[in-house]
């Protein structure tokens, strides 16, 4: 789906006036719960990389309109087992997927640095948006279940918007919903390309949260990096404010 980016008529003010946040593996420790759910379905999480590749492919097909959300995850699970050499009926794949989802949902939890950071942002009065590459309404259920809904002024979900990060349209749509131009908006996420670089290329301030710590490589130009959301307030107050002064 191709959508034109919205046009902003407000000028940059040279200050940070809004914050956008990725959800999974930025706010929610999704990988831990997802690995545990995969292990419950196949006995181990050794095929995690294969699972991620097949998931990314099927989510892309769903966003492109090739698959319906209601059936995408079951078809994905069927394709995953086929890649492992086990041919399942769609009925059996659906049964296993439902079991995986139960374990996944039970394991959802926030990183400990999330609520203090969100409380600080709320105290500043900055509008906040969530931008997620999730494919369906389960993401809104997750956000509500974990008590995040009250913090967000807007929630942008790729499966609803019709495009995903790093496409600039979803970033611009979030900025439009907050009423703040991209140049005055920060986006924080755990994926270097989809989140930080995508936001930078959309005219925003891209911040990569790398929870595993420094990798020894050079950070791409125009980006900032943190290892915890506890570092975000200082970054917003000091580094980014100085950069736009």
Would you write up a description of this structure?
With 245 residues, this protein is of the alpha/beta class. It folds into 2 domains: 18-29 and 109-243, Rossmann fold; 30-106, no CATH class. It is 48% helix and 11% strand. The chain contains 10 helices and 6 strands; from the N terminus they run E-H-H-H-H-H-E-H-E-H-H-E-H-E-E-H. Helix 1 packs across helix 4 (90-106).
Layout of secondary structure:
Layout: E1 18-21, H1 30-42, H2 48-63, H3 69-83, H4 90-106, H5 114-124, E2 128-132, H6 138-145, E3 154-157, H7 158-161, H8 168-178, E4 185-189, H9 192-201, E5 205-209, E6 223-226, H10 232-243
Parallel strand pairs: 1-2, 1-4, 2-3, 4-5, 5-6
The biggest beta sheet, please? 6 strands, parallel
List the uncertain runs.
1-13
Summarize model confidence as the mean pLDDT: 90
What is the fourth-level CATH superfamily of the largest domain? HAD superfamily/HAD-like
Q: Please bin the fraction of helical residues.
A: 40-55%
Our estimate of the beta-strand percent is: 5-15%
Shape: globular
According to DSSP, the number of beta strands is 6
Query: How many domain regions?
Result: 2
The helix-strand sequence is: EHHHHHEHEHHEHEEH
Gyration radius, in Å: 19 Å
Count of separate DSSP helical elements: 10
EC number: 3.1.3.-
InterPro entries: HAD-like_hydrolase (IPR051400), HAD-like_sf (IPR036412), HAD-SF_hydro_IA (IPR006439), HAD_sf (IPR023214)
GO molecular function: hydrolase activity
Cofactor: Mg(2+)
């Amino acid at each position: 789906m191709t959508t034109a980016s919205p046009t902003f008529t407000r000028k940059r003010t040279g200050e940070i006036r809004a914050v956008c946040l990725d959800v999974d593996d930025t706010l929610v420790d999704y990988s831990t719960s997802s690995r545990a759910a995969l292990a419950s379905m196949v006995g181990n999480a050794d095929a995690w990389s294969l699972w991620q590749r097949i998931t990314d492919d099927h989510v892309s097909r769903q966003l492109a309109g090739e698959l319906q959300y209601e059936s995408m995850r079951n078809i994905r699970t069927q394709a995953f087992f086929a890649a492992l050499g086990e041919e399942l009926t769609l009925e059996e794949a659906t049964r296993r997927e439902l079991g995986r989802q139960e374990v996944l949902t039970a394991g959802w939890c926030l990183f400990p640095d999330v609520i203090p950071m969100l409380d600080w942002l709320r105290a500043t009065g900055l509008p906040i948006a969530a931008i997620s590459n999730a494919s369906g309404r389960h993401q809104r259920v997750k956000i509500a279940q974990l008590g995040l809904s009250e913090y967000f002024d807007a929630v942008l979900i790729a499966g609803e918007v019709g495009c995903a990060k790093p496409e600039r349209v979803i970033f611009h749509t979030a900025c439009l919903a907050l009423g703040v131009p991209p140049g005055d908006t920060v986006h924080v996420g755990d994926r270097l390309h989809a989140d930080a670089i995508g936001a930078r290329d959309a005219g925003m301030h891209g911040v990569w949260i790398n929870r595993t710590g420094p990798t020894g490589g050079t950070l791409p130009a125009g980006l900032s990096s943190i290892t915890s959301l506890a570092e975000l307030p200082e970054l917003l107050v000091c580094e980014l404010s100085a950069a736009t002064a």
